[in-house]
Amino acid sequence: MRTDTPQTIYRKDYTAPSYLVDTVELGFDLDPARTIVANRMTMQRNPDSSRRDIELYGEDIELVTIRLNGKTLDEGAYAIEGSILRIPDAPDSVTLEIETICVPESNTTLSGLYVSNGNFYTQCEAEGFRRITYFPDRPDVMAKYMVMLRADKEKFPVLLSNGNLVEEGELPDGRHYAKWEDPFKKPSYLFALVAARLVCQEEQFPLADGRTALLQVWVEEGNLDKTDYAMQSLKHSIRWDEERWDLELDLDRFMIVAVGDFNMGAMENKGLNIFNTKFVLANPRVATDIDFQGIEAVVGHEYFHNWTGNRVTCRDWFQLSLKEGLTVFRDQEFSADMIGTDTGRAVTRIDQVRTLRQAQFPEDAGPMAHPVRPDSFVEINNFYTVTVYEKGAEVVRMYQTLLGREGFRKGMDLYFARHDGQAVTCDDFRMAMADANGRDLTQFERWYSQAGTPIVQAETRYDEAARTYELRLIQTCPATPGQPEKLPFHIPVAVGLLGKDGRDLPLVIDGQPKGSTAVLELTEADQTFVFSDVPEQPTPSILRDFSAPVILKHGYSDAELVHLFNHDSDPVNRWEAGQRLAMARLLKLASDIALKNPAADAPNASARTAVLEQMNLDEVFVQAMRAILVDESLDPAFREQALLLPTESMIADQMDVVDPLAIHMARQFVRADIGVRLRAELLAQYQANETPGEYSPDAASIGKRALKNLALSYLCAAPDAESLALAERQFDEATNMTDRAAALGALVHGRAPVAPDALQRFYDEFQSEALVVDKWFMMQATAPTTDVATVRELMKHPAFTLRNPNRARSLVAAFCTGNAVQFHAPDGSGYAFWAEQVIALDALNPQVASRLARAMDRWRRYSPALQEHMKKALQQVAGQGKLSNDVREVVSKALA
Ligand code: PHE
Ligand code: ZN
Description:
Number of strands: 33
Helix content: 40-55%
Largest sheet: 8 strands, mixed
EC number: 3.4.11.2
Distance between the termini: 23 Å
Domain Aminopeptidase N-like N-terminal: 73-190
Oligomer: single chain
Family: Belongs to the peptidase M1 family.
Structural class: alpha+beta
Radius of gyration: 28 Å
Bound molecules: phenylalanine, zinc ion
Number of helices: 27
Keywords: Aminopeptidase, Hydrolase, Metal-binding, Metalloprotease, Protease, Zinc
InterPro entries: Aminopeptidase_N-like_N, Aminopeptidase_N-like_N_sf, PepN_Ig-like_sf, Peptidase_M1, Peptidase_M1_dom, Peptidase_M1_pepN, Peptidase_M1_pepN_C, Peptidase_M1_pepN_C_sf
């Protein structure tokens, strides 16, 4: 942590490294209180650089000695300024030997070398390697690593690093060693070591070229009953990369290690992926369907990085989306292919759209908005965002939409052919796509350079006499910090036209038949497309499969939306029509409630309840929901998605002044009214979608459980005694965590009298399962009955600690981001709590603190009275003398 003014780093200031590293030999004498790191590296002056000084980075490490070509450098021969160690006028060819000391046990940042539950782990992305040794810690410096680990054999029987184990043996004093060699050059952020008491599930796995690889999943002893799914997901990932992209595992050994203290989801270190336990450990008793899906996706994601990230890496951190957007796209495609059916694929796509709307669109419209390839940052750790990851994946997906699957594959092949072993840029990727397909993708670059979510306004006109249908598309993009004006994007807009019978009309444009879905290329600010031979006034289905990350506006009538909801052949737009129907009602209700009590900062709940009592959901909407609910020709997974209402935060995004209580009441009202009006149908679906027999996390079973549990939650939203009894019975009898947690959630959110008792029993049963205890905290944190005082009480629970990121997120962050009504309490108590926790966390772990800090991103969208409180809380954090760059960047951008 530094207290000097944080510096902004600009993409345009990139310069090549002055020296390149050929080989690195690292020796670790591991001791939690005092680890000695010996680093010998051979370096050459970089012919592409005009500078003659060696620039190394180091943070929070103690320099013991530094030797250059065998001679100890005295203090005059180098300079340390902040985290930079500079050796001026160095010779062209250099061997540097550096010895440093670090203290893993007091490293609470979980970046660099740290201790978790008595074991050693590392995390080096983005800039953690400099917390281990002095090094040109930047991704365009790629070197070969040889690593010697020495540690107490009793306490740390397992010693792992990247690549292949080349030697191991005993040392005096009960210590032992292991030597690892990574045959591939890599940037320092991919370095990893583990020294721990762990056990593994392992397997020899045949690769496409006839070799076999040793696969291992390493966990703490008590967790060996929770590694099967991760192992299976790893095997599926390897196969999928071979089959879909012809990409093979390039190592003889591939390891996954699970650690309980981890800042993010997982890390793709070469051959030694280190994972948050949340994305490894699962069995039916402790993990939900969503957990299983998360494991498959994250195991895939990290494995796929081996090609998109490790073999071809980023030139600098502004290019982060080069590897992350592409790898998220790959893991999304993997998850979809693993389901294999068209609706299964569509359901994964709908999930992606929900994530974008829930998290990325707000980011793109807030004070931290940044392009997929940012132009500047203060702290790179703040840019591991939904924009870089999820919007980045959308950008990659648009290439595939524009070029076709085959064209995209050609682009990928060319990208690897050109850049294997290199550190490159987003432009290099775009050029590979363009060159492999003979296409000009110059304008497409704006997806990388311009922040903000484009708005596409659609207007239509049918000419009966001419049998033509005009679709006029007008694109705009709101201003974002530092970018007041935007130029038009290159937007693929997939369009279909539905006839009166609900079927797709054959499309003809400029005399060319286009099938039932045409991908229009919108490149101008205002462009009109004309369909010919259109026999009747159609209903347009625009942006099929969510073909671009934009906001589509069109003045649909209810009748058109119901038509699309009932018939659209594109499942994503079918779902979308239902979302539009629901959103219109939710917004109307919320604004009626808000208007009834304009003093939104002193909401009078009973006056508002009175409003609700006069309200009624219209039959058009209820009937539309009913039709989908009972349509047995539709997958349960799709029906569940179609019946799920937009979230409170999505509703908030549509309001001029956000009124959290009005939104919550409106949404609760709709849920309850559906629960009452569709009671018989919901009960029938509840029963029809039981999944008896042994638990299996296959897509069909997951879909059934999802629909069943959605039905339960609607029934309990009313909530009558009978429904709550149903939930209670499910809680008692469930044999898997999905049903167990869903029932408990229904009881807690339905304020069932038995809820406190059920919570206690749940805790008693699972108190030794950290990931389940996280669920227990989270369920309470997000219950609308849980106020700040209750959260403070929960923080006193013996199982609570701010030091463990999963735990801190499950209570503190879950409350601040997932319990809008209580967080935005009119007295500002939620914001004061937020400020306190951000400050407390920042002293331990700036990365986790900084994520929490972002809960306040959109404070300017609330009422003036709430804004006052929020501003005060932000200023309180900003006024702290000692603050990490991470948090300072977030709060100062919020206040700017
Ligand atoms: N690179 C990791 C991933 O996306 C994420 C990560 C970033 C993990 C920084 C730790 C620290 O898979
Ligand atoms: Zn990643």
